[in-house]
Amino acid sequence: MRDILPDLLAVLGRPDARPVALCRVIATSGPAPREVGASMVVTHDDTVIGSVSGGCVESALVHTAQQVLEDGLAVVEQFGIEDPRDPAPGLTCGGQIDVAVERIEPTPERLGQLRRLADALAADEPIAVATTLNAHPDWYVATEASRPPWRRLDHDVADMLDTGRTGVIGLDDCEATDPAAPTEDRPRTFVQTFAPPARLILVGANDFVRALSSLGSTLGMRVTVVDARPVFATPERFPDADEVIVGWPDRYLADQIRDREVRSTTALCVMTHDTKFDVPTLRTALQAPTLGFIGALGSRRTADDRNRRLREEGVDEAQLARLRSPLGLDLGGHTPAEVAVAIAAQIIAERHGAQASPLHEGSGPIHRR
């Protein structure tokens, strides 16, 4: 819902606003085309914002949305494998998705919840939207400081917020442990969490950094460029970066680690080709277990020399094994843009535990969950 939220707020915030239908993927099975949480909005005049399947079932959902807008009763639609003998829409990828469709009224309460969500996303604060899956859904916006009123689900929602998981909890999960509990205290609920975006910290201020900064921003990462030279580290040279820091990279990184701004979703790419910056920064990074990805640009000869210097600085072999250098996948490119693609591809592959091999050479599902 992150990507459609600005449009949703704009539509509901008009003086003459009318209800809209919100469609969200709440569960998937097999090679589904979109992730859980993918969202689509249908307005009263059939304007469609967003997508839940890349085009496979959207037309059917528009029809469902019209019905939900008319009677106000939320439903959950299930779409499975496309059958050429069946006129009903299906998924060509062979998976299955469950889509919850509900009517969203332009009330002060709902607008307040959506604005609270938008504010949290803008501030990079963890937040979750919990929605009951019944005919008349209740909403609750949960943060680290607040919990939903459903007392038998509050710990589940808090756990999902802590771990960044999105999915369905509730009645079915609780029945076995406490069958006597009243169902109104444990409604089947879709919890959609919004964790802060992954970070990309780039050390250096050259053309390769600029290209990777732009690509990282396109991938939805929060990009920081750090360089000690003020003549090069300027916002004008890196327009796609969220912030450009003038300062010694190792000191900046140490401060970020101390302030717990570095997480498992943070990637650090050292791209200066200067040992007085590279070695202290990498030493600091490799000694921080919370940092998810650590890479350094350079040739194999440069990488070997850098590793020797890091060992002399007290970096042990287990720590050194975390360093990705030379950095990037071997795609054969040489230009800054091509190198940026190779680096971003490696970061994505490691984040998802993928082998980064050509799809046509493999077998099994493409969309892994």
Automatic annotation (TrEMBL):
Protein name from the UniProt record: Xanthine dehydrogenase
Every copy of the XdhC Rossmann domain together lies at: 200-347
For this protein, the record's Gene3D superfamilies field holds: NAD(P)-binding Rossmann-like Domain
Name the domain of life this protein comes from. Bacteria
State the organism named in the record.
Gordonia alkanivorans CGMCC 6845
Q: Where is the XdhC- CoxI domain?
A: 17-79
PANTHER family with a match to the protein in the record: ALDEHYDE OXIDOREDUCTASE MOLYBDENUM COFACTOR ASSEMBLY PROTEIN (PTHR30388), MOLYBDENUM COFACTOR INSERTION CHAPERONE PAOD (PTHR30388:SF4)
Alphabetized InterPro entries for the sequence: MoCofactor_Util/Proc, XdhC_CoxI, XdhC_Rossmann_dom
